[in-house]
From TrEMBL:
This is DMT family transporter. Keywords: Membrane, Transmembrane, Transmembrane helix. The chain crosses the membrane at residues 23-43, 55-74, 80-103, 115-133. The keyword Transmembrane applies. GO terms for cellular component: plasma membrane. The keyword Membrane applies.
Amino acid sequence: MCSGIQAPINGALGKKVGGFEGAFVSFFIGTVFLAFIVTFFGRGQLGNVFSVPKWQLIGGFVGALFVTAVILAVPNIGVAMAIFATIVGQMIISMVIDHFGFFGTRPIPINWNRVLGFVFMLAALFFIYRGSFE
């Protein structure tokens, strides 16, 4: 739900202030919100961030790329198509990550059931997208 809501809001923001600027504002507001949550409700070990493997710190960078891409895409291709592309991309990379066990995940091999499920999902998304233009 959040992606579906966030995309048009950030897309509209990007049209007003610029794509990269919109992504910056979005992340800044998110950072302020999370600083409040961590300050008053956090129970984790934030100090351990300096000892984690460096690859675990790229999530924010990847998130910034994602939000920026959506902000730039929504005004050009619309919310539904931007989310459609997002879901397809997420499913492809997720299945590859599962298959090889990247990032410390338990390997889950790609098999015919998973491929068939992906194909059905693509078909469903196609019809949802196509129905947007009738």
